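Hey, I'm writing a tutorial for new members on how sequence and structure tokens pair up, and I'd like a real worked example in the thread rather than a made-up one. If someone can provide the structure for the chain below, I'll link this post from the tutorial.
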Amino acid sequence: MLAEPIHIALPRYDRAERLLFESMAALFAQARDRDNDAGAIPDSRELEDIRRSKNDDSHAYRRLVEQHQPTVSKLLWRFTRDRNEHEELTQQVFVEAYMSLSSYRAKAPFEHWLARIATRVGYRFWTANRRKEQSLPDEVWNRIAKPAADAPDSEAAAKLVHHLLAQLPPRDRLVLTLRYIQQCDIEQTAYRTGWTKTLVRVQTHRAINKLKKLAAKAQIELEL
């Protein structure tokens, strides 16, 4: 255990290394600008592929998969970093989407509808595969406690954040991932989870308190 509390404040997320979480302070204390396309609807070509897919046109559905797979894949990377599990989850999303395609009414972007299914698939995965989190290796703690520069090593800090969040119950982990990692607002989070807006607010508050307690036990100063 570290003798003195550590304060985490890191530079922005390094896309090249695809770190899962960059910085507690940056992710949980600052709001980011997001594209607001809640009112967008699929273009005519996509709508036609959706219509054809509903009529069991495999070629049309393959085009939809090819178009949206990068977005779904990126979203599911938040739920697992194991490549085999990630591939299985991605496939599962598109299987479930195909089976539920008749329920899609084009009132929201198709990408948002897929994201809702992906969130449900990822949440079920967390619930079914919740494991007791192992302790972080000593070298990771040392890289955070004694950084070469003023801020802790970004990769080590990312592992630490992931380590803490992974100890939360899946429901708490999900709401923090949606609200602060994927930057979903209250309405978007409610849509993705199927919860009410009030429940999203309550669950977020509870999850933050639990995360703060975990951070305190690890002697981490967490700004939320």
